[in-house]
Amino acid sequence: MSTKVIALANQKGGVGKTTTAVSLSACLAKRKQNVLLIDLDPQANATSGVGIDKEEGASIYSALLGEADVRTLIKPTETKRLHLIPSELDLAGCEVAIARMDNYLHCLKNALQPIVDQNEYDYILFDCPPSIGILFMNALYAADSIIIPMQAEYLALEGLSVILSLIDQVRDAGNPKLRIEGIVMTMCDLRTNLAQQVVDEVQNHFGDVIYETLIPRSVRLSEAPSYGQPIIQYAPISKGSMAYMKLAKEFLKRQQSAPSA
């Protein structure tokens, strides 16, 4: 199987995007997949979430500018088969530098091409910034597909229409293969009518695109990043951990049934 490049993206913050990026990556690695997680968010929460310290000059910044081989930036994590290209605050400044370059929306795709061509990983996952900018757009131009984490609340539905429109624009403008891998409903408290209504509405609109696995609200999921561990290490038998393991299983099942590119 060739390397699949997947962006986890939602321009709205606080929807469980980074938690999903870290947890899904770790759960896929647990299921014997070789995974590279790339932290594209200058806040570097995915970096600290897998126990890697922020370090000046360690991000993908230099590779985006064509000044470094992306392979030199990859770090192992404590989770076997899960590697990381970390982020740091300086990544926020790279948008200005990239904007001056020719073909600036393809910097990430070009930087990763040697790894993709060699099939060094089963999956490359991007934790995208929670705002639409040059890094966010680079991720969409480099990705085969996109996973949209979405909170079970009505305001999230408005944000979803924005990102769907953006995907259409990217398809038209230079990445025609980009598709929606799936929508993950996060922070679900199905004891409330509102959460159930939102889940039902998204299922009515998008059908099979939405994952059956719903990620619950969980204290353990909230705590795990402060300990620098993915949920499957921090609290392996918690509700959150079991939900993400179930999501990874569902994700891989979809991959097996997906038509090859």
Automatic annotation (TrEMBL):
Transmembrane segments: none annotated. It holds the Pfam family AAA_31. InterPro entries: AAA_dom, DNA_Partitioning_ATPase, P-loop_NTPase. Gene3D superfamilies: P-loop containing nucleotide triphosphate hydrolases. It comes from the Bacteria. Residues 3-180 form the AAA domain. This is AAA family ATPase. It comes from Tichowtungia aerotolerans.
